[in-house]
Design brief:
Strand content: 15-25%
Helix content: 40-55%
CATH class of the largest domain: Alpha Beta
Number of helices: 15
CATH architecture of the largest domain: 3-Layer(aba) Sandwich
CATH superfamily of the largest domain: Aldehyde Dehydrogenase, Chain A, domain 1
Mean pLDDT: 98
Radius of gyration: 23 Å
Oligomer: single chain
Distance between the termini: 69 Å
Largest sheet: 7 strands, mixed
Number of domains: 2
Structural class: alpha/beta
Low-confidence stretches: none
Amino acid sequence: MTLSVVTTNPASGAEIARYAAFSEADVDATLGAAHAAYEVWAAEPLDARTDLLRSVGKLLTERREEYAALITAEMGKPLAEALAEVDKCAWNCTVVADLAPGWLADHEVPSAAARSWLSYEPLGVVVAVMPWNYPFWQVLRFACAALVAGNAGVLKHSPNVTGCALAIEGLFADAGAPAGLFGTLVLDDEQLAEATPRIIGDPRVAAVTLTGSERAGEAVGRAAGHFLKKSVLELGGSDPFVVLADADLAAAATAAVKSRFGNNGQSCIAAKRFIVDSSVADDFVSLLLERVALLEVGDPVSPGTTVGPMARPDLRDGLHRQVEAAVAEGATLVTGGHSIDAAGWFYAPTVLDHVEPRNTAFDEETFGPVAAIVRARDDDHAVALANDTSYGLGASVWSRSDAHALDVGRRIRSGALFVNAMVASDPRLPFGGVGRSGYGRELSAEGTREFTNVRTVFVGGES
């Protein structure tokens, strides 16, 4: 029996579309086409590669409303945020096209040679296992880097955003990408456990990159290690948002709401643990609650909606179990803490106070609209709390003194430190984490070079 992949609107629960899942032969054909395209594409001049990205960016801008509507329909983020996601993808295309010639240029290195340098050469076919929460952005930031470096890309997207996956494949084709250069594998969850190691182990695959859960990262990392394939993993986070005693509380509270509740709370780099100096904690919580009360939960296509549904019912139910456990373990439920009685998979914006280490809301990543307030005695305690996690993606520190915030922030273990700003990705800056948040980098020169063979070239002097 042919397996089907079904996409469902999380705001209504209604089926959107049904797709036939790929057979082994379909997967083999996609990998074969990608490898054949790579062998030609790798020899193309860099100008041809950057021209493709500019064409992709142009089409993203022209089709922004079409693509944003698809994003919102499949995973539920407010339409305004979906439009911003598409716009960011177009911007990324421009940034990579403009800066890649510098990122990939030969790098002269003085040595015992008459001349020596590093060259950044393509690897081959890069498989990307991507999540549903930013269904265009996550893919475009991988694809631009991989393709501009001379590789081919094969996407395995989350099944609930299969429409987005196929739209992106069509986007690259319409922009002029050679046949097979960017392909999509349509697989359902039942196929993944068996298919993942087989795909990664295929000799035509040179590398794999994944953005997703720890469990998915472990599976991909295990397969990549077994087959000795290059891998980049961007996994979960439980980012600390540290509010020091001298912070601008109003500004911090405004950023806190945007960081925690944007994208319906479903972001790896969202602030999740709000570590607040106890001397200002009551005032901060009050300001936070004022802003949370202004959030509009509802149909994500409605102009006034700021929080849409969660992407799937199992995600909503799992989040609620975490909230119930946190309260049972001693956290104070200040607001929210329940599903919303409506069609679709909505969860009320939630604030938990007096969360402490070993509480579920402290130790686990809460992937939804839940803010956990953790009270710190002083700066040293705040740093200890921030570092009391296996994750290490981003950290945000707030103080009226940048020097004070930097002094505290430098002691926090993370892949990114933002001072008086919420953590966000920028195509000009590397993105990635440490610990259980993964390894390797995406975006910028560092992210683009992840998909290259850094070759050392040594030219000897006269004998």
